[in-house]
């Protein structure tokens, strides 16, 4: 109980998510200034066959390579003989009639081909248009030559160091290999600092490329590859990235992407931002530095029929989705619904299969999360300016979380992890509310099946209280339900910190299970959630403290050893090109986000102090509650945290802001 009391008083506002420009949820209704209307629902994809037809108000632009038809013929031959994979768990066959139709359509498209790169075709497109890409590996040489962090683009930076939308529009290939900018810039300036209320995009321009469809024309996603790094690495590493993002869709209402592969971006292979209505279908992502897919502040979105592997943080990241279910603003969202849906995807061989800071109202079903270090995480480790606290209202059902025992922290790992997680775990929910986890399979996760723990209100308002927020109260980790799940072969099936004051969390109808603590509240089979109240668990709270705030070589944190392994994890060698060391003379948030333990080791004491001063300014920034600001670590405490964590043999690529974030959330320093 003593540890629990300290946690209640001490958890601070911090950042776990990546750095974006201050972003806003799009207004949920359609934009009918274009016809058909853009947004307001998940877009319906157009068939490949219709791309060769004349459609009023829509132009098809075709991108190809000289050997595209030869590549297609080879792919069809393989598929006729052996079939093809939509994802590892979805193998399909190709019939002779389908093969003939696909050849006919591609030959007609090849005759219309006028582009050898994708970005020019996208740039030339307008509302309702489509870009069809024939088989090939597309490295986008023109976009690659565009400078990154071009000084000419500094004029578009906000006070955080992120580009405004105008900056993304005018410098589209500074960070992105391919950029789909869906709207014109607005007539005014983006609010800086950002507005507190994040409903509705301020300074929004007119539809320019709304309802755009970008698709490959091959048998499967394997036939059309967009590579933001080293194509000679294939679908593996090292990535040797040249751009931060593979494909970016920004304010692109009604955007459809299908039937292609994106790989080797330094941050995110596919990035969808501030878009109302999107569909990502039948695609694959491999070996991004952070996320295979990142969607942020989205509404009316579906991700389906996908594979994501080899990513340093997670395969799929639906962050800060529109809060349209529990905790919603009923004036904006009168009827409860899910804002995003993720289904029929395989996410494997990542540090985490799925993550989503403040990722609310997401329906996650019929997916396979396997072979990761951690299968699934949703959390409230919220950066200043990151909307959506607290996370609420996901439905997670009919998924298979199995064999998440991959250890990216050992010497021979081909995945470069950017965040510490507990190897051997199927799921954790860190501070989420009103989530339902039902009818899933959790099997062979050798540490734990599913974890639940709290992040109290002091995370939001410890230093500067606001109306309705009390640092001594808990508004996270309430009313979560786990039922109907099949638990087999896990180290421990369910793990709960039983944080004092947590209420309404229920575990029932899961069959015979193991748990820590040994008796979890079943709430009379879910009928009486008020019977569930946390009273603290010293052992579980101690683990959170040691692994969140007191990482150090030889320390007690058990997370980085594969539970079944008998030997300690070896040190790892980071592939060349997988990290850099930004100078510390002029630090903005984007540079802070790029710094790793490698950077920390190379800094002088003065440079470290300068960096930590800038980190404190960022972490103490305004969040999306009136008057609320983040709590920070002292330089002395932050130095101790980073010295210890970066002393781990495998911690070189860990992001400093993520280590700082977790330590500030659990600030008690253990001896």
From TrEMBL:
The keyword Chloroplast does not apply. Keywords: Signal. Residues 243-373 form the Right handed beta helix domain. This is Right handed beta helix domain-containing protein. Coiled coil: none annotated. The keyword Transferase does not apply. Residues 1-17 form the signal peptide. Pfam families: Beta_helix. It comes from Actinomadura verrucosospora. It comes from the Bacteria.
């Amino acid at each position: 109980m003593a540890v629990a009391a300290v946690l209640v008083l001490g958890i601070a506002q911090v950042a776990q998510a990546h750095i974006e420009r201050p972003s806003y949820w799009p207004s949920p209704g359609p934009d009918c200034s274009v016809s058909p209307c853009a947004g307001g629902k998940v877009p319906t994809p157009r068939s490949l066959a219709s791309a060769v037809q004349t459609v009023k108000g829509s132009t098809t632009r075709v991108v190809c390579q000289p050997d595209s038809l030869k590549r297609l013929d080879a792919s069809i031959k393989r598929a006729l003989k052996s079939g093809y994979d939509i994802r590892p768990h979805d193998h399909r066959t190709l019939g002779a009639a389908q093969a003939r139709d696909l050849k006919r359509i591609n030959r007609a498209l090849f005759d219309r081909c006028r582009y050898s790169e994708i970005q020019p075709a996208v740039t030339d497109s307008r509302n309702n248009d489509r870009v069809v890409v024939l088989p090939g590996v597309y490295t986008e040489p023109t976009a690659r030559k565009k400078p990154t962090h071009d000084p000419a683009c500094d004029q578009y930076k906000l006070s955080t160091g992120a580009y405004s939308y105008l900056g993304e529009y005018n410098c589209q290939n500074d960070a992105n290999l391919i950029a789909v900018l869906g709207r014109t810039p607005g007539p005014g300036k983006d609010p800086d600092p950002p507005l507190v209320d994040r409903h509705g995009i301020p300074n929004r321009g007119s539809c320019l490329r709304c309802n755009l469809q970008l698709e490959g024309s091959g048998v499967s996603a394997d036939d059309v590859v967009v590579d933001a790094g080293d194509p000679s690495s294939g679908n593996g590493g090292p990535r040797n990235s040249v751009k931060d993002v593979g494909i970016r869709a920004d304010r692109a209402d009604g955007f459809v992407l299908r039937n292609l592969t994106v790989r080797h971006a330094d941050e995110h292979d596919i990035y969808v931002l501030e878009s109302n209505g999107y569909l990502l279908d039948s695609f694959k992502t491999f070996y991004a530095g952070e996320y295979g897919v990142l969607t942020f502040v989205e509404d009316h979105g579906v991700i389906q029929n996908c594979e994501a592997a080899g990513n340093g943080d997670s395969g799929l990241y639906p962050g800060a989705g529109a809060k349209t279910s529990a905790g919603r603003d009923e004036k904006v969202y009168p009827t409860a619904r899910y804002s995003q849906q993720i289904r029929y995807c395989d996410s494997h061989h990542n540090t985490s299969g799925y993550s989503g800071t403040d990722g609310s109202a997401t329906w996650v079903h019929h997916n396979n999360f396997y072979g990761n270090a951690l299968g699934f995480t949703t959390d409230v480790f919220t950066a200043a300016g990151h909307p959506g606290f607290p996370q609420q209202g996901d439905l997670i059902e009919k998924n298979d979380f199995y064999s998440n025992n991959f250890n990216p922290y050992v010497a021979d790992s081909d995945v470069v992890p950017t965040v510490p997680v507990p190897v051997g775990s199927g799921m954790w929910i860190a501070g989420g509310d009103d989530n339902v986890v039902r009818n899933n399979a959790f099997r062979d996760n050798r540490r734990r099946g599913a974890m639940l723990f709290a992040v109290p209100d002091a995370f939001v308002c410890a230093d500067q209280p606001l109306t309705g927020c009390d640092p001594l109260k808990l508004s996270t980790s309430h009313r979560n339900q786990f039922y109907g799940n099949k638990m087999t072969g896990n180290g421990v099936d369910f793990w709960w910190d039983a944080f004092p004051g947590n209420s309404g969390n229920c575990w029932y109808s899961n069959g015979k299970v193991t748990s820590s603590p040994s008796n979890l509240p079943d709430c009379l089979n879910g009928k009486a959630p008020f019977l569930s109240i946390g009273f603290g668990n010293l052992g579980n709270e101690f683990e959170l403290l040691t692994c969140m705030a007191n990482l150090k070589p030889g320390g007690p944190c058990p997370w980085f050893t594969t539970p079944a392994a008998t030997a300690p994890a070896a040190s790892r060698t980071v592939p060349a090109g997988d990290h850099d060391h930004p100078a510390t003379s002029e630090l903005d948030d984007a540079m802070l986000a790029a710094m790793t333990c490698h950077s920390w080791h190379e800094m002088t004491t003065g440079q470290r102090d300068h960096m930590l001063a800038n980190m404190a300014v960022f972490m103490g920034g305004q969040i999306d509650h009136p008057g609320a600001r983040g709590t920070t670590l002292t330089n002395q405490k932050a130095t101790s945290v980073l010295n210890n964590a970066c002393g781990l043999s495998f911690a070189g690529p860990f992001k400093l802001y993520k280590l700082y974030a977790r330590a500030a959330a659990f600030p008690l320093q253990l001896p």
